[in-house]
Protein backbone atom coordinates (compact mmCIF):
# COMPACT_ATOMS: atom_id res chain seq x y z
CA UNK A 1 0.00 0.00 0.00
CA UNK A 2 1.12 3.56 -0.65
CA UNK A 3 2.82 4.99 2.44
CA UNK A 4 0.77 8.18 2.19
CA UNK A 5 -2.37 6.21 2.83
CA UNK A 6 -1.29 3.92 5.65
CA UNK A 7 -3.89 4.04 8.44
CA UNK A 8 -6.09 6.38 6.43
CA UNK A 9 -9.41 4.83 7.47
CA UNK A 10 -9.65 6.60 10.86
CA UNK A 11 -8.75 9.89 9.20
CA UNK A 12 -11.47 9.45 6.58
CA UNK A 13 -13.99 8.52 9.26
CA UNK A 14 -13.18 11.67 11.23
CA UNK A 15 -13.38 13.86 8.12
CA UNK A 16 -16.80 12.42 7.32
CA UNK A 17 -17.96 12.95 10.91
CA UNK A 18 -16.82 16.57 10.77
CA UNK A 19 -18.59 17.10 7.46
CA UNK A 20 -15.44 17.86 5.45
CA UNK A 21 -15.79 14.98 3.02
CA UNK A 22 -18.66 12.90 1.77
CA UNK A 23 -18.80 9.33 0.60
CA UNK A 24 -20.59 8.16 -2.50
CA UNK A 25 -20.43 4.56 -3.72
CA UNK A 26 -17.02 3.90 -2.18
CA UNK A 27 -15.49 7.18 -3.36
CA UNK A 28 -14.84 10.32 -1.39
CA UNK A 29 -15.02 13.97 -2.27
CA UNK A 30 -14.78 17.25 -0.45
CA UNK A 31 -18.05 18.64 0.81
CA UNK A 32 -18.77 22.34 0.44
CA UNK A 33 -17.66 22.79 4.06
CA UNK A 34 -14.48 20.88 3.27
CA UNK A 35 -13.77 23.01 0.21
CA UNK A 36 -14.22 26.18 2.26
CA UNK A 37 -11.90 24.84 4.96
CA UNK A 38 -9.20 23.94 2.42
CA UNK A 39 -9.42 27.35 0.76
CA UNK A 40 -9.23 29.10 4.13
CA UNK A 41 -6.23 27.01 5.16
CA UNK A 42 -4.42 27.72 1.89
CA UNK A 43 -5.25 31.42 2.06
CA UNK A 44 -3.79 31.57 5.57
CA UNK A 45 -0.59 29.89 4.40
CA UNK A 46 -0.22 32.26 1.46
CA UNK A 47 -0.83 35.25 3.74
CA UNK A 48 2.05 34.12 5.97
CA UNK A 49 4.50 33.87 3.08
CA UNK A 50 7.19 36.53 2.89
CA UNK A 51 7.55 38.58 -0.29
CA UNK A 52 10.30 36.38 -1.72
CA UNK A 53 8.27 33.24 -1.02
CA UNK A 54 5.21 34.73 -2.70
CA UNK A 55 7.35 35.50 -5.72
CA UNK A 56 8.60 31.90 -5.69
CA UNK A 57 5.01 30.67 -5.74
CA UNK A 58 4.10 32.92 -8.67
CA UNK A 59 7.28 31.92 -10.49
CA UNK A 60 6.60 28.22 -9.91
CA UNK A 61 3.13 28.64 -11.38
CA UNK A 62 4.53 30.37 -14.48
CA UNK A 63 7.22 27.74 -14.83
CA UNK A 64 4.64 24.95 -14.64
CA UNK A 65 2.68 26.71 -17.40
CA UNK A 66 5.77 26.53 -19.60
CA UNK A 67 6.51 22.92 -18.72
CA UNK A 68 2.90 22.07 -19.51
CA UNK A 69 3.54 23.04 -23.12
CA UNK A 70 6.67 20.88 -23.31
CA UNK A 71 4.90 17.96 -21.67
CA UNK A 72 2.08 18.15 -24.23
CA UNK A 73 4.69 18.26 -26.99
CA UNK A 74 6.56 15.27 -25.53
CA UNK A 75 3.37 13.24 -25.08
CA UNK A 76 2.38 13.99 -28.66
CA UNK A 77 5.79 12.85 -29.90
CA UNK A 78 5.41 9.67 -27.82
CA UNK A 79 1.92 8.97 -29.16
CA UNK A 80 2.98 9.57 -32.75
CA UNK A 81 6.20 7.62 -32.22
CA UNK A 82 7.98 10.68 -33.57
CA UNK A 83 10.87 10.38 -31.13
CA UNK A 84 12.87 7.55 -29.63
CA UNK A 85 11.96 6.19 -26.22
CA UNK A 86 15.38 7.33 -25.01
CA UNK A 87 14.68 10.92 -26.12
CA UNK A 88 11.20 10.87 -24.58
CA UNK A 89 12.67 9.70 -21.27
CA UNK A 90 15.37 12.36 -21.43
CA UNK A 91 12.71 15.04 -21.98
CA UNK A 92 10.64 13.75 -19.05
CA UNK A 93 13.72 13.66 -16.82
CA UNK A 94 14.61 17.23 -17.76
CA UNK A 95 11.08 18.39 -16.98
CA UNK A 96 11.13 16.58 -13.64
CA UNK A 97 14.44 18.23 -12.74
CA UNK A 98 13.02 21.65 -13.62
CA UNK A 99 9.88 21.01 -11.59
CA UNK A 100 11.77 19.90 -8.49
CA UNK A 101 14.24 22.78 -8.79
CA UNK A 102 11.48 25.39 -8.85
CA UNK A 103 9.32 23.79 -6.16
CA UNK A 104 11.98 22.91 -3.59
CA UNK A 105 11.61 26.23 -1.76
CA UNK A 106 7.85 25.86 -1.54
CA UNK A 107 7.75 22.39 0.02
CA UNK A 108 8.17 23.67 3.56
CA UNK A 109 5.02 25.79 3.14
CA UNK A 110 3.07 23.37 0.98
CA UNK A 111 4.30 19.90 1.97
CA UNK A 112 1.41 18.24 0.13
CA UNK A 113 3.14 19.15 -3.15
CA UNK A 114 5.67 16.40 -2.40
CA UNK A 115 2.97 13.82 -3.09
CA UNK A 116 2.80 15.05 -6.68
CA UNK A 117 6.57 15.12 -7.04
CA UNK A 118 6.75 11.58 -5.71
CA UNK A 119 4.03 10.56 -8.16
CA UNK A 120 5.90 12.06 -11.09
CA UNK A 121 9.14 10.45 -9.94
CA UNK A 122 7.45 7.07 -9.48
CA UNK A 123 5.95 7.25 -12.96
CA UNK A 124 9.32 8.27 -14.38
CA UNK A 125 10.95 5.26 -12.71
CA UNK A 126 8.34 2.95 -14.23
CA UNK A 127 8.87 4.54 -17.65
CA UNK A 128 12.64 4.02 -17.35
CA UNK A 129 11.95 0.36 -16.52
CA UNK A 130 10.21 0.10 -19.88
CA UNK A 131 6.56 0.62 -18.98
CA UNK A 132 5.77 3.54 -21.26
CA UNK A 133 2.09 3.36 -20.32
CA UNK A 134 3.13 5.42 -17.30
CA UNK A 135 3.74 8.37 -19.61
CA UNK A 136 0.05 9.13 -20.04
CA UNK A 137 -2.18 6.04 -20.02
CA UNK A 138 -2.56 5.33 -16.31
CA UNK A 139 -4.27 7.46 -13.66
CA UNK A 140 -0.95 7.55 -11.78
CA UNK A 141 1.03 8.42 -14.90
CA UNK A 142 3.60 11.18 -15.27
CA UNK A 143 1.08 13.22 -17.23
CA UNK A 144 -1.69 13.01 -14.64
CA UNK A 145 0.59 13.57 -11.65
CA UNK A 146 2.01 16.65 -13.38
CA UNK A 147 -1.41 18.08 -14.17
CA UNK A 148 -2.62 17.54 -10.62
CA UNK A 149 0.46 19.42 -9.41
CA UNK A 150 0.02 22.14 -12.02
CA UNK A 151 -3.64 22.62 -11.13
CA UNK A 152 -2.91 22.72 -7.41
CA UNK A 153 -0.19 25.38 -7.75
CA UNK A 154 -2.26 27.39 -10.23
CA UNK A 155 -5.21 27.35 -7.80
CA UNK A 156 -2.94 28.55 -5.00
CA UNK A 157 -2.00 31.52 -7.15
CA UNK A 158 -5.38 32.27 -8.71
CA UNK A 159 -7.39 32.00 -5.51
CA UNK A 160 -4.89 34.16 -3.63
CA UNK A 161 -4.22 36.89 -6.19
CA UNK A 162 -4.91 39.69 -3.73
CA UNK A 163 -2.34 38.28 -1.28
CA UNK A 164 0.26 37.84 -4.01
CA UNK A 165 0.11 41.33 -5.54
CA UNK A 166 2.94 43.83 -5.31
CA UNK A 167 5.56 41.41 -4.11
Q: Mind explaining what this structure looks like?
A:
This protein has 167 residues and is mainly alpha-helical. It has a domain at 50-164. The protein has seven helices and two strands, in the order H-E-E-H-H-H-H-H-H. It has helices at residues 9-17, 32-48, 51-79, 85-103, 113-128, 142-158, 161-164, and strands spanning 21-24, 27-30. Strands 1-2 form a two-stranded antiparallel ribbon. Strand 1 and strand 2 (27-30) form a beta hairpin. Helix 3 (51-79) packs antiparallel against helix 4. The model has no long low-confidence stretch (mean pLDDT 91).
Considering the chains and any ligands shown, give keywords for the structure:
167 residues, mainly alpha, two-stranded antiparallel ribbon
Briefly summarize what is shown.
By secondary structure, the chain is mainly α.
Put simply, the count of helices is 7
Mean of pLDDT: 91
Count all strands and give the number: 2
- Note poorly predicted spans: none
The gross shape turns out to be globular
Structural class: mainly alpha
Biggest β-sheet strands, sense, barrel: 2 strands, antiparallel
User: SSE order, as H and E?
Assistant: HEEHHHHHH
Q: What's the gyration radius in Å?
A: 18 Å
Give the N-to-C terminal Cα separation.
42 Å
Write the layout of secondary structure elements.
Blueprint: H1 9-17, E1 21-24, E2 27-30, H2 32-48, H3 51-79, H4 85-103, H5 113-128, H6 142-158, H7 161-164
Antiparallel strand pairs: 1-2
Helix pairs in contact: 3-4, 3-6, 4-5, 5-6
Amino acid sequence: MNRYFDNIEPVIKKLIENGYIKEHEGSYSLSEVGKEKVELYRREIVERLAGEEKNSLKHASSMLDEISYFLQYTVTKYQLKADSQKDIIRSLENMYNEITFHLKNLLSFFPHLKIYLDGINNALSRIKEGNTLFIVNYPNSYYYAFYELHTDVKNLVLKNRANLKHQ
